Amino acid sequence: MDEGSELSLTIAHIVQRLKGSHLHSQIERRAQECLHQPDIKLDSLKEDVRSFLKTSGWERQLQNAVYRELQVQLPPSHPPAPPEHIKEPLAYMRAAQAGWEKRVLKSLNSMSTELGVPLARMRPAAEQKELANKWNEMGTDEPDLASVRPVYAPKDFLELLVSLRNPNHDGSEDVSVRSHWGLIQVPLNVRDIPQLRRAYSELNLTSGQLGIDDHAHIHPVVMEQDSAAAQQYSRQGCSTGLRADLWALILNSNNQPQDVMHYEQLTAGVIQHDLLVDNLIYKDVKLTASNDDYYFVFEDFLYQVLLCFSRDTAVLEHFKYNSATPPRSFIQGKGGEEECAVVYPPNGVIPFHGFSMYVAPLCFLYNEPSKLYSVFREMYIRYFFRLHSISSSPSGIVSLCLQFERLLQTHLPQLFYHLRQIGAQPLRIAFKWMVRAFSGYLSTDQLLLLWDRVLGYDSLEVVAVLAAAVFAFRAENLMEVTSLGSAEAVLADLSTLKVMPLIQIFLFATAI
């Protein structure tokens, strides 16, 4: 396909996507209203309307919406390709993901049977009233969770990734024996240090990095309301006073009245219906954020956002470009009848142990629940879903694991070999950091600096770079350990680490 026709296809795809949006109807209405203004002339109608939309800010909003579409979902460049190839081109990755989904759904259904609790039920009127009354204090009276267990933990997911193999790949063709040292044994392309230096040039040692200072004045990027400019700005960090506005701008999450209404409708859905996954959410918050010195104060916010998220069918949109498929279950009494299968939970995402930590850091930035919700949902459908689905994406968890192992093998081979020999494979330690994008491991101010770069570069790759940099920083101590337990002890507390110096030194001070 030549470049011209591919561009035409991209434009047509985005136009089609935006035609049904609320923004399209708003712009159309404003354009009609401006026709009554005296400075709109019939002989220059098109130019005058366009000028009006530009000066009144609608053109910028449209640009941001187009930019968001380009960031979230690249349109297919080969229309005849089957949908599953667009979601994930490698058949063995698709098969592994499908097998994992069956396993997770089986675990959920088994829990439903064991506990004698339906997957979903309508709450009695008295229960609805009680929940509505305590909506802002949900942490004080949660259900009995003693028999509820997470459907899976990150270590279970890691075991599956370790077993991944490409059936068409001959391992004997690998260029070096070192490629077999790691746990991930799939042939994906990941960047080396020289390539990373070029990609992350704004992080070089001579470039200033923002994030510690707090600017009282409004930065021009915020004034201009330009998503692309805000993203570029975020590459060198956001000052703490601007971060909330800049992230919302990058994500094109502007919390319009319709967004607030949508959040209120989701809240009503939580109050009306009880889902089995609600118990998983309660349990996860209790096991993670509630025990965290930084996040325990946000317990009520976390319940609200996550319970609403589980019911949001708008999240299903991301399965068009996610390698995963939303899980389906059967209406009670209709088991096995395919036409009676429904997506469960409604958003298609079964929470796992640690899931609530994707939301927790955002509570520091947004104290309005609907705003917090819309930013989290956008972060999830752009980035976080990639951390718990099997794919060949450069930002996917498989590539991040491979990237981490390659960086360590190449630049700290003695350390990697030593840890491997004592049964302390580095990935077994670092995986839990990466699957949560370091949430719950770094201090919050440092985590937000890391996520600035995730948004700025539109990639989770920097998460793998940081994981390797942590090992490099603690290399001297790690060379002295003799077991997995002692290696984990050396790396148990990351809360004092300074993220940006670690990444900068690892990338730009490492000898090649």
Descriptive account of the structure:
With 512 residues, this protein is mainly alpha-helical. The chain has 24 helices and 4 strands. The protein has helices at 3-19, 22-34, 45-55, 58-72, 83-87, 91-115, 125-133, 154-162, 193-199, 220-224, 227-234, 243-250, 257-272, 276-287, 299-310, 369-382, 397-411, 413-421, 426-435, 444-457, 461-473, 475-478, 484-490, 499-508; strands at residues 120-122, 273-275, 328-330, 341-343. A two-stranded antiparallel sheet has the order 1-2. A two-stranded antiparallel sheet has the order 3-4. Helix 17 (397-411) packs parallel to helix 21. The two termini are 38 Å apart. The model has no long low-confidence stretch (mean pLDDT 85).
What is the structure about, briefly put?
This protein is mainly α. The chain has helices at residues 3-19, 22-34, 45-55, 58-72, 83-87, 91-115, 125-133, 154-162, 193-199, 220-224, 227-234, 243-250, 257-272, 276-287, 299-310, 369-382, 397-411, 413-421, 426-435, 444-457, 461-473, 475-478, 484-490, 499-508; strands spanning 120-122, 273-275, 328-330, 341-343.
